[in-house]
Amino acid sequence: MAQDGYDINPTQMTATSDVAMPQDPEAESSVLSAMLISQDVLQECLIELEPDDFYIPSNRKIYLAMREMFDRNMAVDTISLADFLKSQGELERVGGRPYLLDLGNNSLALVGWRRHVEMLRRDSTLRRMISAAAQITALAYDAPEDTKEVVDRAEKMLLDVTNRDVRSSYQPIGTIMSDLFDQLSDMCENQTAELGVKTGFPTIDSKLLGLRPGQMIVIGARPGVGKTSFALNLAVNAAFNGASVAFFSLEMSKIEIAQRLLSAQSGVGLQEIRSAHIQNDQWPELIRGTDELSGLDIMIDDTPGTTVTEIRAKARRMLHGKKLGLVVVDYLQLLSPPAGMRRADSRATEVSEMSRGIKIMAKDLECPVIALSQLSRRVTERTGKRPELSDLRESGAIEQDADIVILLDRSMDEEEAARDDRPDMGVTNFIIAKNRSGALGDVPLTFVGNKTKFLEVTTHYDD
């Protein structure tokens, strides 16, 4: 490695000391095997590892090939990988098809791949330290008169080693306050500016001040209340206001999602669209709705049984280079734990881990993430049936991780609506049950069920 005129080969240290550089070929092969066998492991390793974490050149080339194939949306399996490496003229250099077949047949690699990833990162850090030490040694032997320069360069080399494992997220208070002042100034000059993604519901936007980057927003409701429909309404509204939306549906197919979107946008009933019983006078509205939706930056993924890691990897690609992004996950309890992870002692523990993963994803992607959640059955047994934070199903960690918790509540029939402690028929209460950045409260919405459309209830009229 060259550094300011010094051409240092840190591996020369191993020649004089007769000590091999930190490495573990078996761990490298095991990680590559797990990446070939599991798409989920592949995506997580592409996030966690760098090419230099593989010391063996052939393993490093295989990792780079898998990463390039993934970036091109190509299938990553033993046969495809061999074909790709052959096209690059690298197949025989990495050990040929026999080595790749051995990697693909090592199913036991899924058991300990997480530990092996940690081993690769550890050895890589140690090699960087050895490299930095070699350069610092060379600097010390051939130092200029000003030793402060040598010390400064030596400190920089060591910091470069640790920067990867200890990522600096701190800032001095002066810098933070300056950024805040600039933000306030911009908002005062442009009163229409929002702090985040608009929901499209004026009263909700005024209470939440937009959905902010890094926020985890949970929307909970009983089955049949309309949490998916509300999330789709919100996604479309956000897209109309300039946001790029990545919608992950673990419950419905792309076509089912598209049917709901078209019904809400065109005003044509969902049942009519599903049954294809379209009247002649409805076609212009369907065409209008289709054209309007087609112009929005909304991407839909309906992969069943996906994981938080896979969603994070896909969302990163979907929203790359986009100024304003939003991720929607429908819904949290249908997520799967990462492949190879030891199954948690209880479902609540698994949901807690996935909830924490969603919060980390929001901060990592620097965009708001909306996660829909089921409510427990006990809400229906309570007098009044008004949902509470404690009703979030299977885990109290959801309540703790979320920055905002929204609970949707509406009466399911006329008898229930007739009660004094229940919402009127057709009215859905948008309950802000938790809000780290603002006030709590209720916002009444009208739900047009046959068109899966939510509208704000007007409570004030001009004379």
UniProtKB/TrEMBL annotation:
Catalytic reaction list: ATP + H2O = ADP + phosphate + H(+)
Q: Which UniProt keywords apply?
A: ATP-binding, DNA replication, DNA-binding, Helicase, Hydrolase, Isomerase, Nucleotide-binding, Primosome
Give the record's GO biological process terms: DNA replication, synthesis of primer
**Name the UniProt record assigns to this protein:** Replicative DNA helicase
The entry's family comment says:
Belongs to the helicase family. DnaB subfamily.
- Pfam short name (any one): DnaB_C
Instruction: Give the span(s) annotated as Disordered.
Output: 1-24
* Annotated SF4 helicase domain residues: 190-461
Alphabetized GO MF terms:
5'-3' DNA helicase activity; ATP binding; ATP hydrolysis activity; DNA binding
Summarize the protein's role.
The main replicative DNA helicase, it participates in initiation and elongation during chromosome replication. Travels ahead of the DNA replisome, separating dsDNA into templates for DNA synthesis. A processive ATP-dependent 5'-3' DNA helicase it has DNA-dependent ATPase activity.
Q: What is its EC number?
A: 5.6.2.3
InterPro entries in the record: AAA+_ATPase (IPR003593), DNA_heli_DnaB-like_N_sf (IPR036185), DNA_helicase_DnaB (IPR007692), DNA_helicase_DnaB-like_C (IPR007694), DNA_helicase_DnaB-like_N (IPR007693), DNA_helicase_N/primase_C (IPR016136), P-loop_NTPase (IPR027417)
Q: Extract one GO cellular component term from the record.
A: cytosol
